[in-house]
Amino acid sequence: MGVLDIVPAGVLTGDNVRKLFDYAKEQQFAIPAINVTSSSTANAVLEAARDIKAPIILQVSQGGSAYFAGKGLKNDQQQASILGAKAAALHIRTVAKEYGVPVVLHSDHCAHKLLPWFDGMLAADEEYYKVNQEPLFSSHMLDLSEEPKEENIKTCVKYFKKLAPLGIWLEMEIGITGGEEDGVDNSGVDNSALYTQPEDVYDVYDALSKISPNFSIAAAFGNVHGVYKPGNVKLHPELLSKHQAYTSEKLGGKEKKPLYLVFHGGSGSTKEEIKTAVDNGVFKMNVDTDTQFAYLSGIRDFVNKRNDYLQTQVGNPEGADKPNKKFYDPRVWVREGEKTLTERVKEACADLGNVNRL
Length: 358
Hints:
The protein is an alpha/beta fold. Helix content is 45%, strand content 15%. The chain has helices spanning 15-27, 39-52, 62-69, 79-96, 115-132, 149-163, 198-208, 240-250, 271-279, 289-305, 325-328, 330-351; strands at residues 10-11, 31-35, 56-60, 102-107, 139-142, 169-174, 180-181, 184-185, 215-219, 261-263, 282-287, 314-316, 319-323. The strands form three sheets. Strands 1, 2, 3, 4, 5, 6, 9, 10 and 11 form a nine-stranded parallel β-sheet that branches. A two-stranded antiparallel sheet has the order 7-8. Strands 12-13 form a two-stranded antiparallel ribbon. The protein starts with 9 loop residues before the first strand and ends in a 7-residue tail after the last helix.
């Protein structure tokens, strides 16, 4: 039995999201969540998933959403980020089913200062639900890890009560992911904040499980956004087993891994760290920095290789009257970035055991 025996191809919502994540936990593999900023990057990720027969998660950040709408638009009230998130979701919904793979459509980190963006996406979900009986997005993330724990949980409960009836999964973060991403800079936080305690994870579980089972927790175990030299970051994915054991004991011990756990800052992680995380109940791993560089590398290599064909519209080493349109056409050099991005997504899937799962 494969994933397509459980859920359909295309964008998933409601209980189908949980069914996919349950299957991943049971079969001990995880699904990479790739940040996309354009139709080009979204299509490349879907292409990779199709080629290796794997479910996939596509996610948009606040900054990536604004870019999707266009950098020329004002975003002083998150209007470009809201518009771009909707545009990205509608594009992915339009093409996803044709790639033949299940897709989770997710929004990434939303700090407290970005809640107007979240509110705008939620309004779009509600409007879409009225017409289609399902939300626009599969899931959303609230990252209130910089707030006091009680405030973090209280706000998540408030929003989850709105998300759950629409069939939207909630991802939340407790404990801080270090480094800097999309304008959120946690590079100076105290090291102890990078490691979440089991009691804190259970407090989240206890509050949210009363509303719906459709939520996940990004518990920090030394995670840092970006890439870093070996030894500079101390990841301890083995700590995730303590979260599972503590919550399991609180619930009576029947289910050994009751938590849906998420791995943030996956770029640059070793294969052993990834394996340990998956063994301890991680079903989703965020990958952004590595895929950004992969997208660049294909374009960079093409420009370096074809440099003499990119200086003028006419005239190259083959002759002064030879046209260069077939080299400078964006469909040519952008495609080279898509190819290398696709290969990096396939690598991420392989690292997580997410290959031939359909």
